[in-house]
Specification:
Layout: E1 4-7, H1 16-30, H2 37-40, H3 48-58, H4 67-85, H5 97-106, E2 110-113, H6 120-127, E3 135-136, H7 150-159, E4 166-170, H8 173-181, E5 185-189, E6 200-202, H9 210-216
Parallel strand pairs: 1-2, 1-4, 2-3, 4-5, 5-6
Helix pairs in contact: 1-4
The structure holds 6-O-phosphono-alpha-D-glucopyranose and magnesium ion (MG).
The site of 6-O-phosphono-alpha-D-glucopyranose (G6P) has 17 residues, from helix 1 and helix 3.
């Protein structure tokens, strides 16, 4: 029986995935690497340093920077990202999300946040929805990035639930893999290709419907 939901943040609750993309694109251009939206699918859900490594590899520059230089590049990207997310308001909650979260609460189910982003608590504050979450997994406590299941397993544990009692909601390929490996029912938001492994898929958050998801998960 389903007793809780675990949500990704960027690209699911709000469109901050777009800001991550813009900040990485700017940083990549500075070091003569061109990235596009197709490549960006591989960055979604992946933590900061691993995202940088993937970009460097994509541009055949994985051996061009010292660890210290890489750390500085990651800081530069994050500074840019922080500037972009300052202006987030409750109006930036994606369509359908508030309705889904309200239904989860009405049914007395638990709710947790399983984002790899160290900026997630700040964004939840900006959106005005911090209090809706029973738990927020701190990515600093994790040793492995999505697609490893660690983050979703930790989320279930913090909620006091078995993985099989949880539904995970994601927009990233790595995220869906993480949910599935954790042994949870996965809800994917996005196109057929990137969400091909999701147990249940919607094209956009506006189509997220509590009753349909619960029925698909077999309750
Ligand atoms: C999420 C996003 C990724 C981002 C990661 C780390 O998983 O989908 O694009 O790289 O969080 O975010 P941070 O804000 O800590 O750099
Ligand atoms: Mg995401």
């Amino acid at each position: 029986m389903i007793k809780g939901f675990l949500f990704d943040l960027d690209g699911v609750i709000t469109d901050s995935a777009e800001y991550h993309y813009r900040a990485w694109k700017k940083l990549a251009e500075k070091i003569d690497i061109k990235i596009d939206r197709e490549f960006n699918e591989q960055l979604k859900g992946v933590d900061r340093m691993n995202s940088l490594e993937r970009i460097l590899k994509y541009g055949n520059k994985e051996n061009d920077f010292t660890e210290q230089e890489k750390a500085a590049l990651a800081v530069e990207k994050n500074d840019d990202y922080l500037t972009l997310i300052q202006l987030i308001t409750p109006e930036d909650i994606l369509p359908g999300i508030m309705e889904l979260m309200n239904k989860i609460k009405e049914h007395d189910l638990k709710m947790g946040l399983t984002s790899a982003s160290k900026n997630a608590p700040f964004i939840l504050e900006k959106l005005g929805i911090s209090e809706m979450f029973d738990i927020v997994v701190d990515p600093a406590t994790l040793s492995k990035s999505k697609p490893d299941p660690e983050i979703f397993l930790k989320g279930a544990q913090l909620l006091g639930l078995e993985p099989s009692q949880c539904i995970g909601v994601e927009d990233a390929e790595a995220g869906i893999e993480s949910i599935r490996k954790a042994g949870m029912f996965s809800v994917g938001v996005g196109d057929e290709v990137s969400m091909r492994d999701a147990d249940y898929r919607v094209e956009t958050t506006a189509q997220l419907d509590f009753d349909k998801i619960m029925a698909a998960a077999g309750k």
